[in-house]
Amino acid sequence: MLRSTVEGVTLAVRAQPGAKKTAITGVYGEGAAAQLKIAVHAPPLEGRANQALIAFLAETLRVAKNAVELKSGTLSRSKVFLLHGISLEKVEAAISARNLLHSPSL
What we know:
The protein has a single domain, classed as YggU-like (Conserved Hypothetical Protein Mth637, Chain: A). The relative contact order is 0.23. The radius of gyration is 13 Å and the shape is globular. A hairpin with a 4-residue loop joins β1 and β2. Strands 1, 2, 3, 4, 5 and 6 form a six-stranded mixed beta sheet that branches. It is built from two helices and six strands.
């Protein structure tokens, strides 16, 4: 789900557009194929869900929106984001904190 690279940290995401609210809902898949499952309030029209995901990740990780780059999966539910200017440890901590606060079923 998370990998440290020369450019930053990559995050594999499984989007669920059209949800009641935007939130981390769990993990999709297992092992190396695992993805962070995020319900997105925005519909999958005209890139709105992608923009909502970028805004949500930027807020969750406390980085600028331009530090969150969609690398692949523009038209797919499975996406890979490149996170600039943040360490792997900080991403893990931010996601863990958000999961505990907003997804008690995990």
